[in-house]
Automatic annotation (TrEMBL):
Pfam family, one: Glyco_hydro_47
Subcellular location per the Swiss-Prot or TrEMBL entry: Endoplasmic reticulum
Protein known as: alpha-1,2-Mannosidase
EC code: 3.2.1.-
Source species: Bracon brevicornis
Keywords attached to this entry: Endoplasmic reticulum, Glycoprotein, Glycosidase, Hydrolase, Signal
InterPro entries, per the entry: 6hp_glycosidase-like_sf, EDEM1/2/3, Glyco_hydro_47, Seven-hairpin_glycosidases
Length: 179
C-alpha cells in the first residue's frame, strides 16, 4: 500500500506546528518580544563590538571572525527592513555602501561569507526600495549593495574551481586559492 506524500507532510506539519491557534493580541505580543530581543542584541553589538564582525556576549567586546567586514551589521540589514526600522536600515546601508570592494589579503570561509555577506547584501539590496533608499537608475539591476555582493561573489568563485567539483572551504579574497 502506497502512502500519499501529502498525507505524510500534513501529519508532520501537525506534529511540528501543533494545532494552537493564536489570538491577534498573542501574535502582537510575540512580535513585540522578538523586536525587543533583536533591538537588545543589535544595540549591544553597536555599543560594544562595532566595527568588528561579532559581539562576544560574555566579555562584551568585539572580534573579527570572517574577515573584518562588520558581519553583524551586514547580517542585520534585512532584519532591520523586515521589522520596519527603515531609518536605521538606510543609515547602515550608507555605511556599508561606502566600501568600494572586498579586496583583502585574508582567507575567509566560503560558506559563511556566501550566506552572511553575499546573501545579506543581496537581500538588503532588494529591500532597499521598500526602505526608501534613493535608487540608482537601472535598479534592481544596479546599486551599491548589489555591486558589493557581486564583488564578493566573484572573489569566492575560485573556491569552486576544484578537481573534484567540491568547493574548497576557504579562499583568499585577494589571491584566490593557492596553487
Amino acid at each position: 500500500m502506497l502512502i500519499n506524500p501529502l498525507y505524510i507532510l500534513a501529519s508532520v506539519l501537525t506534529l511540528v506546528g501543533g494545532s494552537r491557534e493564536y489570538q491577534k493580541k498573542d501574535l502582537h505580543a510575540l512580535r513585540e518580544e522578538v523586536r525587543v530581543m533583536f533591538d537588545h542584541a543589535y544595540s549591544s553589538y553597536l555599543k560594544y563590538a562595532y566595527p568588528y564582525d561579532e559581539l562576544r556576549s560574555l566579555s562584551c567586546d568585539g572580534f573579527d571572525t570572517w574577515g573584518s567586514f562588520s558581519l553583524t551589521l551586514i547580517d542585520a540589514l534585512d532584519t532591520l527592513a523586515v521589522m520596519g526600522n527603515f531609518t536605521e536600515f538606510r543609515r547602515v546601508a550608507e555605511i556599508i555602501s561606502a566600501r568600494k570592494n572586498f579586496e583583502a589579503n585574508i582567507n575567509v570561509s566560503v560558506f559563511e561569507t556566501n550566506i552572511r555577506v553575499v546573501g545579506g547584501l543581496l537581500s538588503a539590496h532588494l529591500l532597499s526600495k521598500k526602505a526608501g533608499m534613493k535608487l540608482e537608475p537601472g535598479w534592481p539591476c544596479n546599486g551599491p549593495l548589489l555591486r558589493l555582493a557581486e564583488d564578493m561573489a566573484k572573489r569566492l568563485l575560485p573556491a569552486f574551481d576544484t578537481p573534484t567539483g567540491m568547493p574548497y572551504g576557504t579562499v583568499n579574497l585577494k589571491h584566490g586559492v593557492p596553487e
